[in-house]
Design a protein that fits this description.
Blueprint lengths: L21 H20 L30
Amino acid sequence: VSAPYEPPLEPEVVLDTAASGISECAGKLLSFLHARYDKALDGEQPPAMRPTSHSMAGDSNPPRAIAGAGP
């Protein structure tokens, strides 16, 4: 990967894996996902993902989130 990591300006969820245990981080992530996507299970459209500062059009190496990445 030639592009440096660029953290999101306004992340929707932050998991501080250095300060919290696996169970706490997993619970926080699951709570976020349930709050965001449970409406989809009821037939409603889930909210759209926010665009990043990267252009995905024609980018053969789009940015990816890395689980557990931290300082």
